[in-house]
Amino acid sequence: MDEQTTPEPAVTGPDAAYREGALDLLGLLAYGALTAFDRLAEDARMAPGLADKVQLATMAGRQVDHFGRIRDRLAESGVDVMAAMQPFHEPFNGYHEHTRPKDWLEGLVKAYVGDGIAVDFYREVAAFVDADTRALVHEVLADGGHGDFVVGRVRGAIEDDPKVGGRLALWGRRLVGEALSQAQRVAADRDALTSLLTGTVDRPGLDLAAVSRMFSRLIENHTRRMATLGLQS
Amino acid sequence: MDEQTTPEPAVTGPDAAYREGALDLLGLLAYGALTAFDRLAEDARMAPGLADKVQLATMAGRQVDHFGRIRDRLAESGVDVMAAMQPFHEPFNGYHEHTRPKDWLEGLVKAYVGDGIAVDFYREVAAFVDADTRALVHEVLADGGHGDFVVGRVRGAIEDDPKVGGRLALWGRRLVGEALSQAQRVAADRDALTSLLTGTVDRPGLDLAAVSRMFSRLIENHTRRMATLGLQS
To answer: Could you read off the pLDDT of B151-163 as tens digits, one per residue?
Structure first.
């Protein structure tokens, strides 16, 4: 059983641990959406032209919509989104502080590669929550076609100047390193979230082999995304 | 008749002038929404706490929705939003460059007082366009309850430190001065927009007395907003 406090510990026993894990997932997503908004809005300011700015602004606006959806869902369960997000301030702020894009292209790669690995991870966790929460998570994580925009811009920039590819490949590796290091931190701090994946005494989860396969999937998808951008991972 | 070029001069004669004026209004609103997004997202970064940041992020997200609605409407008329916004880059950029909030409170007052006078003006112009365009304008300009948030924050800050009121009152006056000076510029440059208000040979509009009454309404509303914030205008 998990002993850490929840924002609203309405029930105890296995259900409480499960509920806490699901709330953690939503809190994670909500704070992720807020920080993504912030970053995309800042990146929009580096856009080389107004059409590019509009794209980034639209992506930022979608994050606010996502935040609102998750806040409303949490409110239905009697949970304040502010409380649910609180445990995730440090890892997200840490990630963003350590991966400030220096220019427009670094911002695009971060939106694609960094968010990509986060989204994959959320989807893996969502497999273990109830159908309603899972549907919300999948809806919030749908790409909305902006990936194509990023891919076009990054590939175009590498075509114009192949040296850019080397720099952005390094950047992509750094993004993944930071993301995994912060994910580690979340996993260590949030037993309820981790036990959604690994199971508890009362509820079976993934065994060690399955966890390792999950990480393989995350890395494979990352490699595929880097290749799509024309970058070596 | 108005001689300036339109993004899509599909018809000529009085209808063309009218159409151009309506397109100008939508282009103005679209670029206004984009720059408002930008500014609100930047102001969100100055928020003293996460709840305040969420409020500003939500306001910024709404601007992106508005932009999308206007872009779609323009597209239905075969007009590219980028072309429609082009004439308004300079006045909006000028306004924002000259009125950069130095802190969180200045940002809030700008969102309330500066946007307030702009919204009033758009509504005045919207009285002269077709019902569909007018409905879109009114929908996009609906406040969404964020005004109450700003009023609460600003009044609270003045209660905590009455000196703040003096500083923000000066700031409010500067905002209006800059807004009017940029509006003047738009009026001088965009005959079609101006003639929506003043009419043409073929279509009656406001006479000079009516234009002057309109300005009185704008100033009265501004004074009322300043008073609502607890500021002398």
So the answer is: 999 999 999 999 9
